[in-house]
Amino acid sequence: MRYFIDISYKGTSYHGWQIQKNAHTLQVEIENALFRLLGVQTPIMASGRTDAGVHAKQQIAHFDTAEAIDIERLKYRLNRYFARDIVINSIVEVKPDAHARFNATERAYEYYVNQNKNPFLQELSYYFPKPLNVDLMNQAASKLLGVQDFESFSKVKTDVNNFICNITRAEWQIENVSLVFHVTANRFLRGMVRALVGTLLEVGLEKITVEDFKKIIEQKDRTAAGDAAPPKGLFLSKVTYPSSIYSN
Hints:
Structural class: alpha+beta
Low-confidence stretches: none
Number of helices: 5
CATH superfamily of the largest domain: Pseudouridine synthase I, catalytic domain, C-terminal subdomain
Number of strands: 10
Distance between the termini: 13 Å
Helix content: 10-25%
Shape: globular
Order of helices and strands: EHEEHEEEHEEEHHE
Strand content: 25-35%
């Protein structure tokens, strides 16, 4: 039996999602909990990896069991097991060949910038008190839309076959006390969202123009783009799947 597990987490205390030697990661934490509660080693596969310090409002992972499980009981026991920084939102049965990574059709991220010093947002946003021209930032963000090569915003050491992504949303919005960058695509490259944010902030500071930003995309060179924004402001916010993967 295969199940999708919907997870929210605050990534501050974790060295990212993926299992790493001698590191406290979310995958290790969740697999250990499943082993303790199910009594067997239960590997999980996520929709994608989040870096150290990055958060998730919705991360999806799949796992297999030999027999059907009591979903609500497992969800309850997992939430009792975890510390406050991990929450299981739901567990649903899916078809045996459903895959949390390869079947995802869209992923959405949010990046939070806080321009007023706020002790309650220190670990959940990037404190950036300098004045920003948000209109220019949105003009530049609009240049990201569509199917393009985003090598300029990818980490250099990566194992992907290509740097092509289809971005369907890219915009800045003011929400409560934060400035939030919303970006949705079929896939993202390693470090891509943080590199986009760091470069768009340079547009907002008027250090580079909208036309400069467009040229950075076209250069396909990571050294042309700005520094990556800190991980603490980044959230994986939604992962979308076709309805056909779910069990009837």
